Amino acid sequence: MKKFRVGVVGCGKISGIYFKNIPQFDALELSACADLDRERAHAAAQEFKIPRVLDTDALLADKDIDIVLNLTVPQGHVPVNLKAIENGKHVFVEKPFALSVGDGNTVLDLARKKGVLVGCAPDTVLGAGYQTVRREIEAGAIGRPTSAMAFMLCHGHESWHPDPEFYYLKGGGPMLDMGPYYLTALITCLGPVRRVSAETGLAFAERTITSQPKAGRKMPVEVPTHQSGTLLFDGGIIATVVMSFDIWANNLPRIEIHGTKGSLSCPDPNSFGGRVARNTGDKNGWQDIPNLKRFGENSRGLGLADLAQAVQEGRTPRASGALALHVLEVMLAFDKSAKEGRHVNIQSKIDRPAPRTDDAIASTLP
Ligand SMILES: NC(=O)c1ccc[n+]([C@@H]2O[C@H](COP(=O)([O-])OP(=O)(O)OC[C@H]3O[C@@H](n4cnc5c(N)ncnc54)[C@H](O)[C@@H]3O)[C@@H](O)[C@H]2O)c1
C-alpha cells in the first residue's frame, strides 16, 4: 500500500494521540509538524520521532507532504485548510469543520477545483461502538427508527484544558465543540437532517479557569453555553438534542435510539468503543450486543487513514468534509432558530457514509 506523508499543523493537547496512532496505519507516515509555538512543535517531534519541524507556511507548501492534518484551534481550521488545498494537499481537519456554512462551502469548492479530498473529525463513529449501532439498526433490530435522544451535559473544559479560552469564543460553545460527535453519530445511523428548532442560553458571562497553568484567570464567554433543540430527520425521525456547559451533574444517557420494535442504548460518541444494548420491551430487559471487533480503543487517525485509502481507491472518505459541513449547518441552526424564533430548514444534502467493515482500514491498531 502507498504511504501518504502526513504534515501536522498544531501540536497542542489533542495532537499526542494522532502522533501515537498515525505510524500504526499502513497508509500513513509522519513527515513533519508545525506550530505557532515552535518549542511545542520541537517537543512533539522529539517525543514522537517526527523527522522534520517546519514553519506552518513551509509545511503547507512542502513537496514531500501529501496530506495536511489540521489540529489547530477552531478559528484556524478554514485558513489553514485553504492554504493547504491551494498547494494541492489533501486535508483532514479536527472539528468543527468551519465557523460558518459559507466558509465550509469555500473549502469544499476549492478542493473540488484542485482535485483533492477533504476529511473532518470526528472519526469516532467509525469505531466499534457506533458501527455496531448502525449494523443493528440496518438489520432491523429495533424496527423502524422513530426517535432519538442525545445529551452532552457538563460544566465546560476550564477544569482540565491548559488553554480553555477558545471553548468560549466564537467557534466554541458546547454545540460546535461536542455537537460534532453526537450529530455525526445520529446522522450516520439515521440519515440527514431536514430541519431544526431550538432555544439557547448562557448561564455565566464570565468563567474562571481552574486548570494549570492559568488557574484563577477570568475568561469572557462570547457564545451560548446551553443549546436545546429538536431535529426532524429526512425519514421523519425526531431527535431531542441538548448540549450544555452549564450543568454541574446529571444522570441522562448519552444517546438512545428508539424504534417501532425496540430501543438501543448507545455509547458515548466521543469514544470508539462502549456498550451497546437493546431492549425490545420483553421480560429480558436490556441485553448487551457484542461490538464489532476492530477499533474499540482510542483510534483517532482512523478517518485520516480512511481518507488516504479513499485517495488511492478513488472514492469518498467516510469521515468526509461534506458530512462535516452538513453537521455544521445543523449545529449553527440551533442558534439561528433560537435567535429568529422559527424552524430552520437545512439546505445541504448528504449520503450516509459507507459502513466500515473490519478489514476496511489497514492498521496494527486493535
Ligand atoms: N483537547 C481535546 O481533548 C480535543 C479532543 C478532540 C478534538 N479536539 C479539537 O482539536 C483541535 C485542537 O484542540 P487542542 O485541545 O489540541 O487545542 P490546543 O490549544 O491545545 O492546541 C492547538 C495548537 O494549535 C496551534 N495553532 C493554532 N493556530 C495555528 C496556526 N495557524 N498554525 C500553526 N499552529 C497553530 C497552537 O499554537 C496550539 O499549540 C480543536 O479544534 C479541538 O476542537 C480537541
Low-confidence stretches: none
What share of residues is helical?
A: 25-40%
CATH H-level superfamily title of the largest domain:
Dihydrodipicolinate Reductase, domain 2
- Under the CATH scheme, the architecture of the largest domain is 2-Layer Sandwich
Q: State the total count of DSSP E strands.
A: 17
Query: What Rg, in angstroms, do the CA atoms define?
Result: 20 Å
How is this structure best described in words?
Strand 2, helix 2 (38-48) and strand 3 form a beta-alpha-beta unit. Helix 4 (74-86) packs parallel to helix 5 (101-114), helix 5 (101-114) runs antiparallel to helix 9 (321-340) and helix 7 (173-190) crosses helix 9 (321-340). The chain has a 9-stranded mixed β-sheet. The protein has a 6-stranded parallel β-sheet with strand order 3-2-1-4-5-6, with helices on both faces. It folds into 2 domains: 4-124 and 299-318, NAD(P)-binding Rossmann-like Domain (Rossmann fold); 125-288, 2-Layer Sandwich (Dihydrodipicolinate Reductase, domain 2). The longest helix has 20 residues, at 321-340. The protein is an alpha/beta fold. The chain starts with a strand and ends in a 21-residue tail after the last strand. The chain is globular and about 60 Å long. The protein has helices at 15-21, 38-48, 56-61, 74-86, 101-114, 128-138, 173-190, 302-313, 321-340, and strands at 4-9, 28-34, 52-53, 67-70, 90-93, 118-120, 145-153, 193-201, 206-208, 218-220, 226-233, 238-244, 255-259, 263-266, 277-279, 287-288, 344-345. Residues 9-15, 34-37, 40, 56, 71-74, 76, 80, 94-95, 163, 177 line the site of nicotinamide-adenine-dinucleotide.
